[in-house]
Amino acid sequence: MKKLSYLFLFTFFALLFTGCQEDEPSFPSSENPTVEVLTNEIYGAPNRKFEIKATLNDDLGLKSVRIEIPELSLDKTINFATEPLLTTYDLSYFFEVPADRGTSEAFKIKLTITDVSGNEIDQEIDLRLDGEFSAPAISMITPKEGAVILLSSSTELPVNFVVNDDSGIDYVQVKCEALNIDELIQLTGSPQSYTFNKTYNLPVTAAQYVLTITAKDKFAIPNMGTMNINIVATNEYPAIYLCDQPKGTNLTTDAVGVPMYFHTKVGQDFEFKYYADTDNKEIYFLGQESDFAPHCFGLNASGDLVDDVASSAIVLPTKGYYKIKVNPSTLDYTVTKYTPTSYVWANIANGLWHDDETQRRPFVSIAGGGIQGANWDTWNAWVQTSLHLANNPNNPYQLVGEYTLTGTMEGTFTGQWWSPSWRLIKNGIATMSPGSNGNAKYPAAPGVYKVILDTELERAFITKK
Q1: Quick check: is 13 in a domain?
Q2: Is 390 exposed, middle or buried, given 0-12, 13-18 or 19+ CB atoms closer than 10 A?
Q3: Are 167 and 217 spatial neighbours (Cβ–Cβ below 8 Å)?
Q4: pLDDT (tens digit, 9 = 90+) per residue, 28-58?
Q5: How far is CA 328 from CA 58, 178, 255, 315, in A?
Q6: Are residues 458 and 365 located together in one domain of the fold?
Q7: Which of 388, 424, 431, 390 is CA-nearest to residue 409?
Q8: Among residues 303, 338, 373, which one ends one of the domains?
Q9: What does DSSP say about strands 106-115 and 120-128: parallel, antiparallel, or unpaired?
């Protein structure tokens, strides 16, 4: 009986072994696989991902590739299917260097490629952690983005900027196709800082230009930095902005409405409506949106309006709404205080969604993109209570709140089924619908922003908190 049991077990395992052998495919002999790496030296850095790229080939079929860096605890095997056989594979593998490694360290990346015939080859790649990945930093002094050059005053275009880079600067290039500018400055000695300062001549005809600044560094794997500057050369101002920020304020950190775009324009007569939120509010008029220079209109020592960056502010004596007119050509301006008569949207914070319009109470939220919690659905705008605006207790014509922006934003301030609604178009204009179409996109750094919707001014102000 015992012999029969042993015989049974032997027969069972023999059949099992034979079955397993039959399940594993066998392949004929073949040539060794080959590997072609993108580079024999990879630069990384602590707490940063790097990429291993290579092309693997085999005349019959690839079985696997093993990636090893023992010191960084990397041991990854990628197995390939054999039905059908894979003869070519483009390896792209990312790995993040641990944060506790030093920038002076270096390692060997070992790739082991095996084919289905059992052939195996190794390939080593050097990994250095002293990589430099930042593009050269370009700091424009003049012109700033959106700069206005008044041709009646000057046809000169001064270009002044500074480039900085830790690994040294290879070259700097200034280009403007429309002005036939293509100047490349090849630098020697790997300087970490370079200042460019040159004046070009403009045609006397009004036009818009794009100035492109490019800088390349001298790192082993070069980094490029590029900046485009839009310039308007004109015989008269296309726009004037009202600025209530102190001199020297960076006017590009806020998302919408700073400085404030004019309301109406007839020739060179610009009219604004403006709300001074305190007594003795100081304002300037700017000929460009992004900076106080080159055109900043304020008062001289005699109290006259001048185009001078060193001018003093115009002071609005008391809190309230004003109509302000300015002509940058004749240097005339008037300031008139007024009392608004437009509709007051009261009890917005106590809004109620209801299908029966008689039982509905208006609320104002936002629908759009680039805003945390927002999409283009007005129901979502209702249920995301963090997006709701509230009445400003100090001004019945303003609705206020805070939004977290995630990047470039666009939106419409809205109630239930777009009633009421104010579409946020270009230049911070928030027109009450029905009105102008075309929501504008506003670049914004991620972060928390204060929001003011002024229904009297039909302007939105979204400023970094």
Answers
A1: no
A2: middle
A3: yes
A4: 888 999 999 988 999 999 999 999 999 999 9
A5: 74, 28, 26, 18
A6: yes
A7: 424
A8: 338
A9: antiparallel
